[in-house]
Every structure is written in structure tokens, then in C-alpha cells.
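Input (structure):
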């Protein structure tokens, strides 16, 4: 017990330690703040100790170790204002035993934001055609289960195409390009998780913001079966300028139907008014349906809507920029 307390204390100290603030963050790849998968977005984006599907590559790579041999998740974020602004997400994972002793998981993820149909003109105002702006994050990760402890990491690669001019991160091994994840099963149904992503200079003088999360989850099955009944997750997230709390719940009124709700980015420390706009508080709702073709093949459909609550719920309802929907399909 003493060693467990020491380990948890060390994790928390790393999670909430101060970073070097001498370099200003440019907010590169801000589309990542929309989350990944309608299931987790509908729960308020607080799954760091709960996630166990292909989208773990984004939330917490330790979740790549799970009971499914193969998983795939495809998602699309829809904006309410700009029809030409697109957000696409995809993840795939494979999990199996290694040497019949260690459980191994590997995964690959892709998230992008793009705007097409941008008109181009020369300095004399002559039409030159159309182009696009796009930026994308590619994630590759691996995880290993050591008893009740799962540990994983994912590597970040950034690509941007600005009207035909492309740039990307180098493939050099660099700790700032790595996201580390841990999950630990305390007792049946009760888990803790940690996810650490450092501030990374993906392009010269352009940075991906840091996020350090610690979370707890509770799962209860339906009766004596393995079917989920209630899932609850709570995360505390330390960002560069303060701390945020996110929580969500998933309830299965029927075996194959899920309803979800959650609230994310509740300020608990720091974050001045000029910085809180980067992490606006959101209220989320979602639904899901699962259909099993066989014991080994199941398809899940999920949809969610997230509504910003800044500066107030009433004011944000009138602002079409303040919400988006996310639709996902997953196969396992």
C-alpha cells in the first residue's frame, strides 16, 4: 500500500508540475480541442481512465490494450456555420496477447481540419483558381498490460498545407512529440488514469499546447452479464494557464441503447478571461446504438452535440459559432 501511495504521489507531482513559460504558445492544431469520437464527446470528454477503444490513441494510449482484437472508429464533426469547413477523424487498433503473457495493443489515428474552395488572386487582382488550407495530426501508438497496470504512448506528427505550401514535423525521436498514458484497475469497476502531453514545437516557433490529465472512472455492468449499464468518468486537466474539470456519464436504459451527458472544461484554477476562450466550458449530450452481427462483430453508431457555455448559456445559444455536432461509427 505504501508503494502505491508513493507512485500516485509521483504521478500527481509530474502532472501538475510547472512548465517553462518562456515561449508563447501559438495554439497550433486547435481542432484537437473538439475531442475524438461522439461517444466520449457526448460524455463531456472525460474518459482518461475509461477509454478502451481505438480512439485511445488520442485520449489515453494505455487504452489501446483492451479485449477486442480489432477496432476501427470513423468520425465527422459538423459546424453550424461554415459548410466548407470540414473535420475528419479516424482511428484503428489491434490488441492481442504477446508470448501468452503480456497483452499488447497498437493503434493509428488521424485527425484533420480543412477549408476548401479558397479563391486565389495575383497582385493585380487576376483570378488564379482555388486552393485549400488543411492541417492534420497523425498519431501512432503502442500499449502494454502489466497485470492491473496498462502503460502506453503515442507519437505526434503534424502536417499543414497552407494554399499549396506544405510543412510537417520531423520524424526525429523527441520527448515533446510523445504522449504518455497510464491506466490502473484499483478494484472491479474502479479505475484511475493519467495522460501527459508536453508543450511541443511541431513547427519552428509554433507550438501544440500541453495537457496533463488525471482521472477516475467507475463502471457497473448489467446484472451478472458483461454488458455495460453505467459508465462514469471524471478528469482533472492541467493546461498551460490553469486547471479544468470534465465529467460525464453514460447510461444504458436498454442493452443496445446508450444516452450520454457531460460537462467539460469547468475552471478550477488559473485561466484569465483572455485565456479561457481557448478552453470554453461545454455542455454535451449524446446517444448511441450498438448492433451485434455476431459474437465477434459489432457496429456502434453515436451522435453528440456540444454547446459552449461562455459567457452564459443564454448568450451562447444565440451564437451559432458556439456549438458543433459529432457523428461516429465504430466497428469491433
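Output (sequence):
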Amino acid at each position: 500500500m505504501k508503494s502505491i501511495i508513493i507512485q500516485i504521489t509521483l504521478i500527481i507531482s509530474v502532472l501538475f508540475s510547472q512548465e517553462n513559460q518562456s515561449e508563447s504558445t501559438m495554439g497550433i492544431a486547435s481542432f484537437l480541442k473538439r475531442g475524438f469520437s461522439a461517444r466520449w464527446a457526448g460524455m463531456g470528454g472525460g474518459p482518461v481512465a475509461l477509454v478502451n477503444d481505438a480512439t485511445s490513441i488520442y485520449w489515453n494510449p494505455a487504452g489501446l490494450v483492451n479485449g477486442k482484437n480489432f477496432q476501427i472508429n470513423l468520425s465527422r464533426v459538423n459546424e453550424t456555420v461554415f459548410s466548407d469547413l470540414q473535420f475528419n477523424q479516424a482511428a484503428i487498433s489491434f490488441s492481442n496477447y504477446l508470448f501468452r503473457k503480456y497483452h499488447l495493443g497498437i493503434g493509428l489515428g488521424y485527425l484533420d481540419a480543412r477549408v476548401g474552395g479558397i479563391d486565389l488572386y495575383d497582385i493585380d487582382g487576376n483570378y488564379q483558381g482555388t486552393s485549400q488550407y488543411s492541417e492534420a495530426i497523425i498519431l501512432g501508438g503502442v500499449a502494454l498490460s502489466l497485470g492491473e497496470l496498462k502503460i502506453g504512448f503515442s507519437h505526434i506528427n503534424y502536417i499543414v498545407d497552407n494554399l499549396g505550401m506544405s510543412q510537417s514535423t520531423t520524424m526525429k525521436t523527441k520527448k515533446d512529440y510523445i504522449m504518455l498514458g497510464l491506466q490502473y484497475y484499483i478494484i472491479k469497476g474502479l479505475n484511475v488514469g493519467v495522460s501527459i502531453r508536453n508543450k511541443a514545437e511541431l513547427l519552428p516557433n509554433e507550438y501544440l499546447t500541453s495537457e496533463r490529465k488525471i482521472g477516475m472512472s467507475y463502471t457497473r455492468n448489467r446484472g451478472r452479464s458483461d454488458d455495460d449499464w453505467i459508465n462514469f468518468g471524471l478528469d482533472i486537466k492541467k493546461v498551460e494557464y490553469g486547471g479544468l474539470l470534465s465529467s460525464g456519464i453514460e447510461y444504458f436504459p436498454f442493452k443496445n441503447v446508450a444516452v450520454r451527458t457531460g460537462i467539460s472544461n469547468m475552471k478550477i484554477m488559473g485561466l484569465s478571461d483572455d485565456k479561457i476562450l481557448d478552453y470554453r466550458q461545454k455542455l454535451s449530450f449524446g446517444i448511441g446504438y450498438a448492433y451485434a452481427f455476431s459474437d465477434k462483430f459489432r457496429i456502434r453508431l453515436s451522435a453528440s452535440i456540444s454547446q459552449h457555455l461562455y459567457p452564459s448559456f443564454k448568450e451562447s445559444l444565440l451564437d451559432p459559432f458556439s456549438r458543433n455536432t459529432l457523428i461516429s461509427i465504430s466497428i469491433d
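Notes: Residues 1-26 have pLDDT under 50 and may be disordered. The CA atoms of residues 250 and 260 lie 4 Å apart.
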